[in-house]
Predict the structure.
Amino acid sequence: MIITPHLLAGAAIGSQTDNYWLAAVLALISHFILDVIPHAEYDIPALKRKIKGRRKLFFDLAKIGVDFSLGFLMIIFLTKNYTDVSYILTGMFFGILPDIFSFLGFVFNFRFLKTLYKYHTALHFFRKMSIHKWIGYASQIVVVLAAIWVIK
Ligand SMILES: [Zn+2]
């Protein structure tokens, strides 16, 4: 899934526990489960080195920036009445960690990051099926709404 539902799902998990380890492990697991569910994603071709160009790279980074900011601002807004957000932030971080590794893999080209990326991408096996793009949007909206409901 894109960054916003991963952030919110991780935050929702963090909001339900007062154990950092549990928040981290469950949020990490949530990432892989959400990636298995059919969903639509925007492409980042320049970051994946499929196309070249500073402008195109900037555009890819802007998409990621907007996506991250949207999720993060929603979490800030939803947790404004929380006194301790440390578990929520832990869940949020581990909920997005596999994508952070993917991002670092695009930037640095390390072999172990490439291997992680290969397994991470393999979870998106629904790509071989023909799924209507609206199902791909709806699945993520459902995750976001469920997370909002849990955090609030
Ligand atoms: Zn992912």
